[in-house]
Amino acid sequence: GFTIDIKSFLKPGEKSYTQRCRLFVGNLPTDITEEDFKRLFERYGEPSEVFINRDRGFGFIRLESRTLAEIAKAELDGTILKSRPLRIRFATHGAALTVKNLSPVVSNELLEQAFSQFGPVERAVVVVDDRGRATGKGFVEFAAKPPARKALERCSDGAFLLTTTPRPVVVEPMEQFDDEDGLPEKLMQKTQQYHKEQPPRFAQPGTFEFEYASRWKALDEMEKQQREQVDRNIREAKEKLEAEMEAARHEHQLMLMRQGKIR
């Protein structure tokens, strides 16, 4: 086999061996050795972390870059090892936080710099829309859990300001989703309920299904309207607070100027 040129897979500014490069490997044979496990991944460069739980048939491995991990996952997921198909996915990032209330002037670099006071940051990203405009949200991935916990506690207890605007950021644990692999049929739990399920269809008017489907739709519509009303109320309250803040700031500056003139 050939070995991949690893250096070309680290993107500009990307840190190596981060938690984003960590793969979960499931359905391992119970008699696998660490050497066998490492040999599976040897063409993807030198790993920095190798862990195997033989009793439960799973392991973790951390490669140098995200791209290498993606290639390894694409090539090895579903391959047969001792008559067992390997199940490979990205490991959950245990030290990632979402950050809200970001000012439009906050960049990835400023976000990383601000949160580095709590501990080493692997990656900080300001989320933008499809036109590249800041959405007011971002996320920070720490190298370990303790600094992430520290950031969460300090930002909950205090008011952490990243810019001139006295609007503190809101920090929360990041929800983890796998929106890439989803739930393929082969991984479905084949329960009794699964075998009783009917195929996809539109409910026919006049039936029991249609009556209850209509009631669910009405409830969903009510939820949507109430959420929209709450969003409007919050938006108006934020605009009011913004206006009050600007007026108070102006008043404060005038007062400072007067004091300067008196002296």
Structure description:
The protein is of the alpha+beta class and 263 residues long. Helix content is 38%, strand content 19%. The protein has helices at residues 34-40, 66-76, 108-115, 145-157, 192-196, 208-262, and strands at residues 22-26, 49-53, 58-62, 80-81, 84-85, 87-90, 96-100, 121-128, 134-142, 170-173. The strands form 3 sheets. It has a 4-stranded antiparallel β-sheet with strand order 2-3-1-6, with helices on one face. The protein has a 4-stranded antiparallel β-sheet with strand order 8-9-7-10, with helices on one face. A two-stranded antiparallel ribbon has the order 4-5. A hairpin with a 2-residue loop joins strand 4 and strand 5. The relative contact order is 0.09.
Q: What composes the largest sheet?
A: 4 strands, antiparallel
Structural classification: alpha+beta
At CATH level 3, the topology of the largest domain is: Alpha-Beta Plaits
- The N- and C-terminal alpha carbons lie at a distance of 81 Å
CATH superfamily of the largest domain: RRM (RNA recognition motif) domain
Counted by DSSP, the helix tally is 6
Number of strands: 10
Form type? flat
Question: What percentage of amino acids are in beta strands?
Answer: 15-25%
| Number of individual domains | 3
Helical amount among residues, as a percent range? 25-40%
The helix-strand sequence is EHEEHEEEEHEEHEHH
CATH architecture of the largest domain: 2-Layer Sandwich
Organism: Pelecanus crispus
Family: Belongs to the PSPC family.
Keywords: Coiled coil, Nucleus, Phosphoprotein, Repeat, RNA-binding
Protein name: Paraspeckle component 1
